[in-house]
Every structure is written in structure tokens, then in C-alpha cells.
Amino acid sequence: MPLAPHEVPDPSPPVAVEALLLRHDPTEGFAYRRLITALGRSAGPDRTARRLARLGEHDELHMAHSTSWRATRDGGIVLTYLVHPDPDPDRPAIPLPEPHVIARSPRPGHPAPPDLEIGHVVAHAVRHLAFLEGADPAVAAHLATWPDIVHALRSLPVATAGEVHYACSSHHSAIPAGHSAP
């Protein structure tokens, strides 16, 4: 049965794909570049993230992994991907001095952190990568050729969603509310 004109649902909210291009220097620490584009109607988010980072279809030297999603103030959705290594390391990047800092909501019934900033999203993506380095053989194999980043990732506190309370009290770490657990 078709919907009456007043019953037609609102059009889908806009969806954006964000690629965080990660690099690491043993002296300087983590840094990133952020690229973002609208998700086209006929494009999948994985393909869009790879295209945004300028990775070829058969590029196996770079890793692209979905790390989180978040709602925007205007009702849209942002799908976040971490890309490693940054395919254009000569471009300026933004330092991530504290990958352990986490945004969270003080109100359990309102999971979106009121002060969420892009640095929190990047820090979450880096901690997600740290989790994957120990849990996903394909990611671990990719990162094995980058011993400095493996060392840096292993120094981060890693917690899954069920361990957030313990991570908060012992490592000052948690998963941002409204984000997927690593």
C-alpha cells in the first residue's frame, strides 16, 4: 500500500565520507590530514574513502578502515575512515599530540559528546587502529612494515566498549559516545 503524501518519510539525510590520512614520526608522534566528501547515491562508502585518499583500485600498500560514524548538527551522518600511511606525506598535516584524550557525554541518556572535536575523532581512530593491530591479522601484517607506529600503537591504552569504565579509571581512556567500539 503506497504512503499518502503526508506520510512520505523525509528524504535520507546527507551522508559524508571522511578520510583521516595518518602518519607517524617517532619524534613528532601522530599527525593526520582530513579529507571529506559527500557520499554519492551510487557509490559505496569504502570506494568513496579510497577515492578520496587517491588510492588506486588495486593499491595494497595502503590500509583503509572504517573507524566510526557520527551525526552532524544538521541531521547528516559522517562515516570516518582511517587511511595508513598517508599517500601524500609531503602535504602539511595536523599533529595529534594526545591520542589518548577522549570526548564523552556526561549524560548517559544523551550519548553524543557535547564538545566533540575532530581531534577526538582522530584519537578514536588511532585507538581503533591499536586495537586492530592486536586483533586483525590483515591489519597487523600491514602495520608490521612500520615498526615505529606499531610501538606507538602498543603504548596506547586500548579498551572495547564493555571495558570503558575500567579504562576511564585506570588509563583515563574511553570510547567516545556515539562511536563504534574498536
Word description of this protein:
A 5-stranded mixed sheet has the order 3-4-1-2-5, sandwiched between helices. The chain starts with 14 loop residues before the first strand and ends in an 11-residue tail after the last helix. The C terminus is likely disordered. The chain is α+β, with helices and mostly antiparallel strands and 182 residues long. Helix 2 crosses helix 3. Helix content is 27%, strand content 23%. It is built from 5 helices and 5 strands.
How would you concisely characterize the structure shown here?
Helices cover 27% and strands 23% of the residues. With 182 residues, it is α+β, with helices and mostly antiparallel strands.
Question: Tags for this entry?
Answer:
182 residues; alpha+beta; 5-stranded mixed beta sheet; 5 helices; 5 strands; 27% helix; globular; disordered C terminus
Largest sheet: number of strands, sense, barrel closure: 5 strands, mixed
Strand arrangement in the largest pleated sheet: 3-4-1-2-5
Structural class, please? alpha+beta
End-to-end CA span: 42 Å
The overall pLDDT average reads 84
Assembly of the depicted chains: single chain
Give the helix/strand layout.
Elements: E1 15-25, E2 29-38, H1 45-52, E3 63-71, E4 77-84, E5 94-96, H2 118-135, H3 137-143, H4 147-154, H5 164-171
Parallel strand pairs: 1-4
Antiparallel strand pairs: 1-2, 2-5, 3-4
Helix pairs in contact: 2-3
